[in-house]
Design brief:
Oligomer: single chain
Strand content: 15-25%
Shape: globular
Number of domains: 2
CATH architecture of the largest domain: 3-Layer(aba) Sandwich
CATH superfamily of the largest domain: HUPs
Structural class: alpha/beta
Helix content: 25-40%
Number of strands: 10
CATH topology of the largest domain: Rossmann fold
Bound molecules: xanthosine-5'-monophosphate
Distance between the termini: 39 Å
Largest sheet: 5 strands, parallel
Number of helices: 10
Strand order of the largest sheet: 3-2-1-4-5
CATH class of the largest domain: Alpha Beta
Order of helices and strands: HEHEHEHHEHEHHHEEEEHE
Length: 327
């Protein structure tokens, strides 16, 4: 296993299944040598990076990997289920699933400030992970899905699903098998490892999850509307061939209402805002031209299928001036 954080100039870009297989063989050998018969812990978010690290470790050391999937209640529809299906059922992983939804939502109740919300989510995530780590015995290593851009941009530790803030008694030796890879390479490796397409080609999803898209103080009913509308948007983008063309697409449910009319009755409900952007590095972003018929269809589905919603808006603002997320 490479201990250096510098990608050698000679390292070939992993672009083909054969190169991915070669990388996997080398890493599995190195991971076996590093870990031996000890146990290794991983926070498995279900994102590309941690999923690929989990799959590599399962190949190398099987059930010596203890993968902890914390559901903070702010995941997209179907995500925890997919993690359980793929890792526990298909790959026979030693998976600890923690549904911490109530803990997170109770802590977030009434908190409207975006940075405060992020801090609460980050701190609570570490607390839950810590509690799970303490229940386990014989852990020697902590695996992380650090990738090369993380090292280039912000030092060795991932800032988002960051478990670097663990206390002293939980400071394990780090295992970072994809730390010299770029995102596209991680995807090629993930595909070769047999992870599902929807996991490997997943669009970026922020650590605080739906929490920053349910603006202001999060409520369970508005969060449910957000999750349902996001699922409809993703489904329609897949069906209409937009999922591969748009870098990031999601919905937002703001914390205000407007009047509407449904079944001859006046309503007072939330709007759903659609955001669909393209970008190279997330520093700037442009707006995708979504065909009007698709927008009409998505609108119709959202206002009829999602309780508490009476309007759909399309955010046409590039970055700058608007950030990609609304908070
Ligand atoms: P903005 O909103 O700053 O987002 O234009 C740029 C990219 O970063 C993601 N993002 C985050 N990712 N934790 C994350 O892991 C966060 O707190 C966070 N905030 C924004 C956003 O989804 C976009 O891809």
């Amino acid at each position: 296993m490479s201990t250096s954080n510098v990608r050698p100039a000679s390292m070939e870009r992993i672009t083909t299944p054969a190169l991915a297989q070669q990388f996997i063989d080398e890493q599995v050998k190195a991971l076996k040598a590093q870990i031996g018969d000890k146990k290794v812990l991983l926070a498995l978010s279900g994102g590309v990076d941690s999923s690929v690290v989990a799959a590599l470790l399962i190949k190398a050391v099987g059930r010596q990997l203890v993968a902890v999937h914390v559901n903070h209640g702010l995941l997209r529809k179907g995500e925890p289920e997919q993690v359980i299906r793929v890792f526990r059922d298909q790959l026979n992983a030693n998976l600890v699933y923690v549904d911490a939804t109530d803990r997170f939502l109770d802590k977030l109740a009434g908190v409207a400030d975006p940075e405060q919300k992020r801090k609460i989510i980050g701190a609570e995530f570490i607390r839950v992970f810590e509690e799970e780590a303490r229940k386990l015995e014989g852990i020697r290593f902590l695996a992380q899905g650090t990738i090369y851009p993380d090292i280039l941009e912000s030092g060795p530790v991932k800032s988002h699903h960051n478990v670097g803030g663990l206390p002293e008694d939980l400071q394990f030796e780090l295992v970072e098998p994809v730390k010299l890879l770029f995102k596209d390479e991680v995807r090629v490796v993930g595909k070769e490892l047999g992870l599902p397409e929807s996991m490997v080609n997943r669009q970026p999803f922020p650590g605080p999850g739906l929490g920053v898209r349910c603006t202001g103080a999060i409520t369970r009913d508005r969060l449910a509307a957000l999750r349902e509308s996001d699922a409809i948007l993703r489904e329609e983008f897949e069906i209409n061939g937009l999922a591969d063309k748009v870098w990031q697409y999601f919905t937002i449910v703001p914390d205000y209402k407007s009047t509407g009319v449904k079944d001859d009755k006046r309503s007072w409900d939330w709007p759903v805002i659609i955001r669909a952007v393209n970008t190279r590095d997330a520093m700037t972003a442009t707006i995708e031209e979504i065909p009007y018929p698709v927008l009409h269809h998505i609108t119709r589905r959202i206002v009829t299928e999602v309780p508490g919603v009476n309007r759909v808006l399309y955010d046409l603002t590039p970055k700058p001036t608007g950030t990609i997320e609304w908070e």
